[in-house]
């Protein structure tokens, strides 16, 4: 058989709380408060195709890993939970695959105005979406499934505390007007320890060149410090000022 | 955001027991004996990427619906289980989608020689495969999921019996040499009633122009008749002779 070239176009883009790859959970559902809005492209007139989706609780999002920076595909990858171990790419959900297609089941919160509001998302803001499918329990929920190396690996590595400055800032933002629980979202995200494998969960191996980290969440650069297995949220910086100061697009 | 054009190449092709769309189950797992072999393209040197997959029981196959014949996308579709009702394409797993990408979880039977042997498959023979991912229970098995219109819809419509001629033929083929249980596979496939919606499960609406049906399974055209809710397998014809006689490729 002669391999074809297959051409697709995004049908939607995801707006999410995560501004960059760093900080974005590596699986859906791990940060239940992580929110996203999947906006269908208005020029495609797809609104009618959503009819009936409201009866489902969860949605498969088939998407492009559009922020991959590596060029050449490597057959083996280092998933964070293997702490340095290597494994075949097809035995992982790594973004680094021959075809950089991602697959995440997220919770449907609301469907309105040609968009699906979801939670538990693990997509970076701006992700192009290729397809949307209902999660069909009779086919997709496989009770007897075994999870290979992903079983018995912890998903949460860090305890998270907040400085008074961070708490005051979060408090001042309030919860009105549809705002989510930002404190819970920060906690859920940092418990997963988004740092690179090398520094993760290995006591005494904190990065000597960088004692604080930051990740982009909604309109903020969330700055935190890690000591052993404890993460402390120090402050929330304004994302656009932060991004400008390092010469990145906002 | 400007929509991009995304280009992919198949990484593998699926060899399966189903020769045509007609007869192929509409979801994975419905015919547990349905078998397939997902062969990685040898020129891509992907064997190492399979390492570690053997620890998982199930595999996501992301594939192309390559046998779609419709040209224009329609926002609403008629899923067989809705018996004539219409619903939005994104609320279904229909092949007819803006991007004709399919998603099926299948059972891993064996991994050897750059190929994955699977069961419970719902892909037509020759299907191009875009990606393979392990089924990760902690992310993919969603206990609380609600299945919208797919709940409380039966998946099995017909009782299946076999003529003596069909039984003799199946018996004569034997079970040795890795041959699967062909009788079970035929039964599982026909119980699902692969006929078009119009004739399906509606007493008195049998197709007046065609009293027998046939579907391509392994090397056979399986010929059967439907009376009410009972399907009778009449005979197994040689597939290549059958396909030749109607001027189709084998």
Strand order of the largest sheet of chain A: 2-3-8-7-4-9
What is the CA–CA distance across the termini of chain A?
Answer: 46 Å
> CATH class of the largest domain in chain A, anyone?
Mainly Beta
What Rg of chain A is obtained from the alpha carbons, in whole angstroms? 19 Å
Instruction: Give the SSE string of chain A.
Output: EEEEEEEEEHEHHEEEH
Please tell me the overall pLDDT of chain A.
Answer: 90
Number of helices of chain A: 4
* CATH architectural type of the largest domain in chain A: Beta Barrel
Biggest beta sheet attributes of chain A: 6 strands, antiparallel, barrel
Provide the CATH topology of the largest domain in chain A: Elongation Factor Tu (Ef-tu), domain 3
Into which percent range does the helicity of residues of chain A fall? 10-25%
Q: Count interface residues per chain for the largest interface.
A: A-B, 75 and 75 residues
Oligomerization state of this entry? Answer: homodimer
CATH superfamily of the largest domain in chain A: YaeB-like
User: What is the beta-strand fraction of chain A?
Assistant: 25-35%
Total count of domains of chain A: 2
């Amino acid at each position: 058989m002669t391999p074809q070239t297959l051409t697709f176009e995004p049908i939607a883009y995801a707006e999410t709380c995560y501004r960059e790859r760093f900080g974005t959970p590596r699986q859906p559902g791990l940060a239940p408060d992580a929110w996203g809005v999947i906006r269908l492209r208005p020029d495609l007139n797809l609104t009618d195709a959503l009819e009936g989706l409201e009866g489902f609780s969860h949605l498969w999002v088939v998407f492009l890993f559009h922020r991959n920076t590596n060029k050449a595909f490597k057959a083996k990858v280092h998933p964070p939970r293997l702490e340095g171990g290597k494994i075949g790419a097809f035995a992982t959900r790594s973004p680094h695959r021959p075809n950089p297609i991602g697959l995440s089941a997220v919770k449907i919160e609301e469907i309105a105005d040609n968009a699906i509001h979801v939670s538990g998302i693990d997509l970076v803001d701006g992700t192009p979406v290729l397809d949307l499918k209902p999660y069909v329990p009779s086919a997709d929920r496989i009770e007897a499934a075994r999870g290979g190396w992903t079983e018995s690996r912890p998903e949460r590595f860090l305890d998270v505390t907040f400085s008074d400055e961070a708490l005051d800032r979060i408090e001042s933002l309030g919860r009105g007007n549809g705002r989510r629980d930002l404190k819970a979202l920060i906690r859920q995200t940092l418990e997963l320890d988004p740092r690179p494998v090398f520094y993760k969960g290995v006591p005494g191996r904190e990065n000597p060149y960088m004692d604080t980290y930051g990740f982009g969440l909604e309109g903020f650069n969330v700055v935190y410090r890690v000591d052993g297995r404890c993460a402390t949220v120090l402050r929330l910086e304004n994302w656009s000022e932060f991004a400008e100061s390092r010469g990145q697009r906002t």
